[in-house]
Amino acid sequence: MTIYDSVAEHEIESESEDSSRPFRPLEGIVVVSLEQAVAAPFATRQLADLGARVIKIERPISGDSARGYDTTVHGQSSHFVWLNRGKESIELDVKSPEGNEVLHRLVQRADVVIQNLAPGAADRLGIGSADLADRYPELITCDISGYGSGGPYSDKKAYDLLIQCEAGLVSITGTEESPAKVGISIADIATGMYAYTGILTAILERNRTGRGARLEISMLEALGEWMNYPLLYSMYGGTQPARAGASHATIAPYGPFTCSDGVTINVGLQNEREWDRFCAIVLAQPQLATDSRFAGNHQRAAHRRELDDIITESFSAMDSIRARELLDKAAIAFAEQRTVRSFANHPQLKARARWDDVTTPSGVVQTLIPPVTVDGSRPRLGAVPRLGEHTNDIIDWVWQSAENRLRA
Known about the structure:
The chain is α/β, with parallel strands linked by helices and 408 residues long. 41% of the residues lie in helices and 15% in strands. The longest helix has 24 residues, at 186-209.
């Protein structure tokens, strides 16, 4: 069964949910974003999901660089479809006198201005956060950069892989023989999440005090927060966590084991009670529980290769159905090592109605709905805009707003 079959089948099951009230806590909030790639678009897409009006300023002709990353989704970029639903796109040459005037008029109408332009570009356009804070004290600004303002790296360009390297993530990811980057844009995603939550916090504060805020998020510091466990381990333990592939660097047994039918199952044990049950029920070797080599997690991690050989031999003698039965009986946490495609058909996602339609310029696509579920409500999954789709409407709105203010 494909993802499309799963979703179509589930439409009948979820009809009753169509009457749920819309969840629009940010309705009336105007966000102006000079954004590209992943970090800022991920933040603003989540604001759009909550009902904010997000005006996405794009370069004429080429638009957001993410539009050209690939052509896999009905001829469109998978990154762009993921990150840009529910937004309005305006093509604007912000360096031209006319375009810069429109930019400044948009800023006047905004509640939030977010940008992840190259270092110094916002100041050159006359929309640096310090200047905007002086002119519009109720405005919330959010500046996203690779390394933050000040310091020897402040003017450096930054991309996800480079930040993974600078934050030390690559050094602890991969196999013992070879380091590897994380397979998704984790530095960008972390940054976008902190921008999103920071903006929500600033909106709450403005509602309380009437004052805006200047937010700054650097990719290095966002990913650095997620690196705190290996940081503490390295700073106070003397060595950093070892690269362990799909296993855990400091917990054993914890990782993948392949069954006789070729299915790989990952197991994770957290305490000695689970270890005792694992030995007795899953491995059928209760004597291992008292083996001095494996007495406590520290010893098991120290003798990981010997332990993994024992578990590998046991799992290779049973198929995945039997392995699941025994793991469930022993109350051991486990998971099938799925491909991305098999994740798309995950029965739990189907059972919980986690798929919905999103309209794009090239047709309807299926997408996962936001992970925060609000009882009785449904999120806003707006259309993905074509480049410049809303240019005329936005310019008309800007000038009409200016005329209305003059009349007032």
